[in-house]
Amino acid sequence: MKFPSEPFKIKVIEPIRRTTREERDRLLRQAGYNLFQIPAKSVYVDLLTDSGTAAMSDNQWAGMMLGDESYAGSENYYHFEEAVRSIFGYRHVIPTHQGRMAENLLFSTVVKSGMCVPNNIHFDTTRANVEHQGADALDLVIKEAYDPRCELPFKGNMDLVRLEETINRLGRDRIPLVMLTITNNSGGGQPVSMENIRQTRALVKRYHIPLFFDACRFAENCFFIKEREAEYADTSILAIAQELFGYGDGCTMSAKKDGLVNIGGFLSLNNEQWARDITNMLILVEGFPTYGGLAGRDLEAMARGLREVLDEDYLRFRIGQVRYLGELLDTAGVPILRPIGGHAVYLDARAYLPHLRPEELPAQALAIALYREYGIRGVEIGTVMFGKKDQATGRTVYPELEMVRLAIPRRVYTNMQITYVAESIIELYRRRESIAGFRMTYEAPVLRHFTARFEELPVRTSQRSGL
Known about the structure:
The chain is α/β, with parallel strands linked by helices. The chain folds into 2 domains: 21-50 and 311-458, Alpha-Beta Complex (Aspartate Aminotransferase, domain 1); 58-308, Aspartate Aminotransferase, domain 2 (3-Layer(aba) Sandwich). It has 17 helices and 16 strands. A 5-stranded mixed β-sheet has the order 2-8-7-6-5, sandwiched between helices. The longest helix is centred in the C-terminal third of the chain and has 20 residues, at 312-331.
């Protein structure tokens, strides 16, 4: 089969309801056209994020009934610690309530003002946590990552030439660590090859710089390695993961992705002093080191989810379902980022809405149109999320890519619902000239996309006439 069927059966359902276009239009106006402010009950198919939105297994739910809610030394912590060490291999395992807290603890401990943290591409919370320390979050992905049409198997790879130039330009002391995001979310959910990881490790080792992974979608990245690097075709996902993390010194993890849980994360590393300093901060802001802001039942669900996510039948279906949506759109001529990534399909908003100027926020306009017309909620990955003001000129610096991400929750939607999404996007594409632009009327100083407000611009005469 080109797209494998579900390797599970449905045991519990959650009703969802359809809304009218009039209701959705009213909700959008009340929300300032920010899809983060739309009540979830008014969304028919919710592809805002794959973070924390997975359906847990019967095994995970059973584990939650065994939650040990002791303040210190919970039995579930030791199950969790064992699971993390068996996969990731690092000495210290520090639980947190989600990935951004792991990032905050790491960067607030080791990153100082004036430093630089290179990454293939930082995602929003990673970038914000680096910049909150007064440091530079530098993206050094290969240049092909910014070409939506370019077909490369590993478009998430680090540009090693630019990385070494950056180290030599800034000096080793200004780079506390190098990160690799696997898969590369901001670049279209693209994987990083084992060969690139190996070479990145060799490079930073020469300069005595630690290598960390943003590991939230590590299993999907490992599946792509198995699928696309011939030497790993007969290697298990667990063995691939163990080798991959063996090239690093630590990782941050939002288990709300490839941990298959609704809450949870962790920081794992080898450096003894860093672990001690991070744990001291953890106690201040999250809780005791054996619960880290989580209930014992959540630690148990996370321990079991980390093992379940390594199942190849699950991963084949998971990535196959994303691919199914992408192929339906691509066959119909809808412009998407190629190749199709691991957790989401990314609509190329500039190519989808060529009549909108960059300042008219085409990705935001497209995301709003999808919700207003069909009740589908995606997320803008473009100017709203990553655009910046040039301090010297005051002009907006637009990001390389202007996309709408359709992130598919794990084990949640059927292929019939995915087909509905594809048919809706295709239908909207046929009358795309009617979509108007937007302008931002309010923005917060950090992570503005969560709370920004917008107003809709008038449809230009050329749009009304279809010219």
